[in-house]
Amino acid sequence: MSKTDLLHAKDLRFAFDGASEPAVDGVSLRLGEGEVLAILGPNGAGKTTLLHLLNGILRPQSGQLYLEGQDLSARPRSQISRVVGLVPQFEHVAFEYSVEEYVLMGRAPHLGMLELPTPSDRRLAVESLNQLGLLALRHRSMLELSGGERQMVVLARALAQQARLLLMDEPLAHLDLSNKGRILGVIRQLSVAGVTVVFTTHEPDMVQGVAQQVLLMREGRVVASGRTETVLTSETLSQTYGVAIRVLMVDGVSLVRLEAML
Amino acid sequence: MRLDHESSQRVRGAGRRSGLALLLLSLILLAGASLFLGRYPAPYWTPPALLANDELAQRLVLSLRLPRILAAIMMGSTLAAAGLIFQMVFRNPLVEPGLLGVSQGAALGAALSILALQASPLMTEISAAVFALLGLSLSFLLARRIRYGGWVLRLILAGIAVSALFGAGVGMLKYAADPLSELPELTFWLLGGLWGVTWRETVFLLPPVALSLVLAWAMRWRMNLLTLSDESAISLGSRLRRERSLVLLGAVVAVAAVTAVGGIVGWVGLIIPHVARRLFGADAAHALPAAVLLGGIFVLVCDTAARTLLGGEIPLGILTSFIGALGFALLMMHTGVRLRP
Fold it and tell me: Count of A–B CB contacts within 8 Å?
């Protein structure tokens, strides 16, 4: 493997207890600094499980996983968390934390178990909110936010984590178009700043111009992977989703449409 | 923008800090006042001047009231802190610290000792402590064997099952108890109270309570992570199982100790955490010390009332429920009672 790889996964395989089929089966990928990878596939294809493997939340039953050239399973949890951040798809909030208190939890990997956040941690939390245009929400209760706002705050928490690799599980779900645009803009900015981003999505149209790489999954296996413009074709998408899909070229931009809708 | 942020941060921090300082001061003043509240030589007040030459007053204040006051504070602080921790770990604001078989375990232990052994108060305490820890261990063991749900749900289910089992045992013993001699004693124990506390009990309480509070204090910010989803907590660097078990065990051992000494005093562990969060926000860095102080104040006030108001002792559990429910309803009906801008 090359020295510049931030993340290198080889032939990952994982099956949940008692499941007859593995959730992730033979997935390999490599990502350099600042690269953006979009993972697409139908519900239950193993996208979330793959993200959990890449974050060390789940341990693969076979295959190898290297982060910054080191075996991931050999690194302590706090060290992994300083490098890899996760924005889960759903986040249940049980108590009335203020938005700022909540985002501050993103600093935990940089603090010892018995340490309190310092003023500079607080500053970083506020800056993350500012970066997403959420400063006005700062003192609001997490329980009063709309679903979309909450999703953005969880992203701010991950930004406060200052990870080199950010994993986002369906960051575009439940967002209106302007918030989708904002998230995609943030992903681009992060990429320019050298942060590697992996995100899952159900919207192939949202991938272009943001992700340089795409991984198509079905039933835990890779259908196709590689550069976005070569992977997103009518054939591969139809095969991934099991329905007829056409990729149309309009003014140099490709549009993904269901055959049945044309 | 930054200037604005930092100055407002300081004001908020200062508001909470002075709020905590105020609570600490109130606790100390109340404890001091409680030393002189009582029914000797006449109802409600023991004049401090009496201590100079009245030997009975000296013994009363130093050997009975002082240890009892300290025990009341330790009990309130422990129950409230444990309640906050339980609610955070189980991500559920309706959970109370006796949940994992501790309360019913202690009750069964005490009932067995009172009925089967006609035992002394000391034996009853020991038996209650042993059975409280037995209930806790059974809950943990059963949770490991349950093949359903995540760890948190399994623990709750196991706790409910073990509590019900021990509760059935307590019911059976109540049914079998001699209604003239044993039943009143058992009922009184089940309603909770600190009337039997001497320096021996206070010294017995000190190590587990101190250990548990120091541990909780040390992890007061970190434990916020435990309220997140598993995947978020782990991705933020928490070794979730280990940290969860550590704070839970630390809390619950102290709860077993105070329950063994004071019986089942309800309501404190359930409601004080809500009051603390309401006043100081959900961040446990502030809510935990607030719960410790508020719990101490609350049980101290209730216990002082329990031993002062009537000629006989009023069971503490009755007062905590009565005063607590009224105070709680009043607080929750007021909007904007909050030390936050």
Answer: 99
Q: Which of B238, B281, B285 sits opposite A98 (nearest CB)?
A: B281
Strands A36-40 and A196-201: parallel
Report d(CA A204, CA A240) in Å as an integer.
12
**In CATH terms, is domain B45-333 a member of 3.30.70.1350?**
no
Alpha-carbon distance of B298 to B97, in angstroms, equals: 17
Q: Find the mean pLDDT for residues B100-115.
A: 89
Are A57 and B222 an interchain contact pair (Cβ–Cβ within 8 Å)? no
Global ipTM: 0.92
Helix, coil or strand: residue B17 = helix
Q: Is the CB of B332 inside 8 Å of chain A's CB atoms?
A: no
B281 contacts in chain A (CB < 8 Å):
96-98, 101
Whether A109 contacts A81, CB under 8 Å: yes
Instruction: Please list every residue in chain B whose beta carbon sits closer than 8 Å to the beta carbon of residue A59.
Output: none
| Residue A261 placed within a domain | no
Contact (CB<8Å) B238/A108: yes
Check B91 against A92: CB less than 8 A apart.
yes
Buried b / exposed e over A17-45, threshold 16 CB at 10 Å, is: eeeeebbbbebebbbbebbbbbbbbeeeb
| Mean pLDDT confidence for A159-184 | 92
A109-156 pLDDT tens trace: 999 999 999 999 999 999 999 998 999 999 999 999 988 899 899 999
Report the mean per-residue pLDDT for chain B.
88
Domains held by chain A: number: 1
Between CA A186 and CA A166 the distance in angstroms is: 12
Length of chain B: 341
| pLDDT value of position B1 | 39
Chain A residues touching B340 at Cβ < 8 A: 98, 139
Residue A254 placed within a domain: no
- In this structure, what CATH number is given to the domain that contains residue A54? 3.40.50.300
**For residue A19, what are the domain limits?**
5-232
Grouping H, G, I as helix, E, B as strand and the rest as coil, residue B50 is helix
- With respect to residue A248, please indicate whether it lies within any of the assigned structural domains: no
Return the number of other C-beta atoms located less than 10 Å from residue B255's C-beta: 31
Q: What is the DSSP string of A27-64?
A: EEEEEETT-EEEEE--TTSSHHHHHHHHTTSS--SEEE
Residues of chain A contacting B237 with CB distance shorter than 8 Å: 77-78, 80-82, 108-109
Tens digit of each residue's pLDDT (9 = 90 or more) over B266-280: 889 989 999 999 889
Low-confidence winner among A222-231, B311-320, B327-336 (lowest mean pLDDT): B327-336
Cα gap A95→B113, rounded to integer Å: 41
Nearest-angstrom CA–CA distance, A12 and A47: 13
Residue A145: how many other CB atoms lie within 10 Å: 18
Query: Per residue in B159-191, pLDDT tens?
Result: 999 999 999 999 999 998 888 888 888 888 888
Per-residue pLDDT at B324: 82
Question: Token digits for B90?
Answer: 């189980």
Stretch B57-86: mean pLDDT: 95
Q: Which of A77, A90, A139 sits opposite B237 (nearest CB)?
A: A77
Residue with tokens 């038996």: B127
Q: What is the pLDDT of residues B135-167, one digit of tens each?
A: 988 998 998 898 888 878 888 899 999 999 999
